[in-house]
Amino acid sequence: MVSGNRVTLLHDGAQCFPAMLGAIDSAREEILLEMYWFHSDRVGQRFAEALASKARDGVAVCVIYDTVGSWEANPAMFDEMRAAGCQVREYHPIAPWRKRFKVGVVNRRDHRKLLVVDGSIAMTGGVNIGDPWASVEEGGEGWRDDMIRIEGPAALQARRVFLTTWTTLGGREPRSADWQPSREDLERGASRVRVLANDYFGDRRAIRRAYIDAIRAARSLVYVTNSYFVPDRVIRRALASAVNRGVDVRVLVPGQSDVMAVYYAGRHLYGWLMRRGVRLYEWQRTVLHAKSAVIDDRWCTVGTFNLDYRSWRFNLEVNATVEDAAVATAMRARFEKDLAHAVPVNPVNWRYRSPSDRLTEQFFYLFRRLL
Questions:
Q1: Is this prediction's pTM over 0.90?
Q2: Among 146, 181, 225, 296, which residue has the fewest nearby CB atoms (within 10 Å)?
């Protein structure tokens, strides 16, 4: 954890996109963008043009996008960015005709959504660059999501996360290894922040371990929002143990999902969780895509990590954890606001759900490690 950061919580594309574009526009030295889903739709083109414009102004612009996550994107958009001076790398392209192609890497994806500007501003969360996150009024689908904006020395941790992947893809570091942002760039704040990454080249369990440690230390509340909630046995037991200590444990999950296989696999665990006192709520509006949690009004986390097997074992992920009572209280307030648009899962109704639902849930749960 590093001190001296100013943290802002952002929600949905209506807040996140302007904040991201504002940070890009403010860049003077470098822009680092790592994105799972970078579409070439209206929102994607807006970001591509903003990045290209900064590259033409002489700012070092480095972009990583994931092949699978961005499979619908038009390659011409990335070519235009390169022509403007952006350095663009594709993560694990599916190219069997290449000599060094390995089938095993197809399942390893870069699921991060990370923006770092001038080493002093970092942003991460569940928001991808695409129309689904834009508001309905702007022609989007209004997906529910969270993002965190960090100003301060923790942004350098995020920069190192990006550069670890960037250099393995053959990219050059845009600044020297000892480059640091100016003192004026590092606005002092009250938040202690740590940027954690699941990394093939480092600690695969860092984010998961932070979740488990925080849950085990909880004394009053554990509120989790997670879009693909298929927790393993260790996490389930940590949640159940917290309930036994008198902790208020609540989990907000999607009422509808963009990945129905994961949705059904997660529902298979509802009975186990409810029998142990975990209170489950299903979001009733658009797609819930957020990955955040708050514990005891003292600790919170926002990032790309889902509580499922894929995030733990296969994906590159990034989360920011924050120790700041004011930020944690704001996160709890947002969680409680979201509950107004969710319904509690009723144990009685759950017990008498249809046989077809039971079979579907069990089927996809058997394949949870492949989803």
A1: yes
A2: 296
Q: How many CB atoms lie within 10 A of CB 120?
A: 27
Provide φ and ψ at 188, rounded to 5°: -75, 140
- Confirm whether 311 is domain-assigned: yes
Burial of 84 (0-12, 13-18, 19+ CB in 10 A): middle
Q: Which residues pair with 62 in a beta bridge?
A: 32, 87
Task: Give the whole-angstrom CA distance, residue 331 versus residue 337.
Answer: 10
The domain in which residue 211 lies consists of: 206-370
Q: How many CB atoms lie within 10 A of CB 44?
A: 23
Same domain, 22 and 147: yes
Domain count, the chain: 2
In this structure, the answer to whether residues 109 and 214 fall within a common structural domain is no
pLDDT digits (tens, 9 = 90+) for 193-240: 999 998 766 677 889 999 999 999 999 999 999 999 999 999 999 999
Do 62 and 33 meet the contact criterion of CB atoms below 8 Å apart?
yes
Residue 89 is predicted with a pLDDT of 96
Cβ–Cβ < 8 Å for 324, 332: no
Determine the Cα angle at 364 with ends 361 and 365, to 5°. 80
Confidence grade of residue 287 (pLDDT, cut at 50, 70, 90): very high
